[in-house]
């Protein structure tokens, strides 16, 4: 169907017609189909069942099993070449994870064996269910600190070690339920509410907090604060300066920290030497343990790990609180720690998948991560996730599949069975040095600078999380980051960008006059673009902003002796949706403009908006002839009308 636009000159509309296409009303699909398409777009945007189409029943069953256990798919194509890469990478990350696990367990206020337990069972579960080829599973510094801080606030690990351990297992169980539940219900998009800027700030603050916590072992301090904020920690450090520091401990810690950092520098300069920083922690443990043993430095005040139980993971399902006063605390702590663990793992998985040009399914990853933590809670493990440092080493070592996790788990199991007694004389200072060297990589100054350059509000979220962690506590820093992230979303929803458009010379293109100063405003016509859906939360703002634009443009026109505004064109291409409040706001705007003999024109509304404009009768109210396919069409219609009015 076509309608007519009058050209310049007088006469009736019918005498001056240019063909123009009407904005088409989308075909009605019915309520059920609308709901179905909405649900599919929200929860099944990746079309997870597309591979099942036109398949036999047996093939569908196989694909269903393969969807839960991806190992069934890639195992059929496994060969000796891939095994070689996985074997080398698995052994490499095992040499890195063993000393880290012992240190991270202490960070969580647990015996060192629980760190090793957590690098045995969970990686095996993930290898069967995970879709990432590169991620290395195990305890990580930030989650260890988080679980240790939150659980210690409920139960003192020194006074009630058995109850504390049960709470940790309970939190791990519910973290797994939370993660798997998000994946099963396809609610993975919820973790995206923790913005990249907030994560950068939180991780940086947590890294500094973790490093400061290691001063206890690094300096040989026996009495140390239980708080994590920087003020309390530094007060505790300087309070012990005169009589609590042990010079032998400091010498051991500083020497091996320097060695590990130099090894990292070598690996960074020459990627072929990736194995140097990977084995440096294990070499440090071996050498420092031997040194303490032959010199009996533990008799001189050097604190050591002492006894680590031999044997693989004992069953711990009976230790989980399924009732009682600690159940709700376990659920709360598990939810918080699970969210952080999930965010870190999915981010790492996506990073390495992009580097190798393959896809991971975020929801399947969540199910895999959740399942491994549930199984881990049954087998004396605490919360595990993807480790960025180990995953990076895994990637550089040439891993091909998740078999590298299996190799690492086997090495850890052998360590638990046969080697743990050798760690008896490992000094705590070396564990502190290993953790400090590991968390320094979490402080991403370049990312913070880039965030500042790109978006100042993002930088506020970043710094809010950072300072919240280091000056108050880890959980408060996390809360601040979430609150600021939500505040930013609310601000963008309630105060969307609206701009004045002008015509770019020698084109029929209309653009933001601030971005394109050469763009010319059309005399007597004001063109506004709304860069957002119009909802109840922003509809009044958009109406008021449009009227304010109108007053300002009229004042400018009057000062320049130009025609007053007689047409207001709203460019609606970016308006993806509109609700009842939005329609009502447009009606009020239309009435306000009519009182001032100004005509409201809509340009290029999308299908959803167009349908709602017709259903609400607003399209009839302003007239179909005032709804155009483009701003150019609308201006072409308004210009001769304006000329007629001025004649």
TrEMBL record:
One of its GO terms (molecular function) is secondary active sulfate transmembrane transporter activity. SUPFAM superfamilies: SpoIIaa-like. It is a multi-pass membrane protein. Keywords: Membrane, Sulfate transport, Symport, Transmembrane, Transmembrane helix, Transport. This is Sulfate transporter 1.1. GO terms for cellular component: membrane. The keyword Ubl conjugation does not apply. The chain crosses the membrane at residues 135-155, 167-185, 197-215, 245-266, 273-294, 333-355, 367-389, 395-416, 428-452, 464-487. It comes from Noccaea caerulescens (Alpine penny-cress). Residues 515-638 form the STAS domain. It is found in: Membrane. CDD domains: STAS_SulP_like_sulfate_transporter.
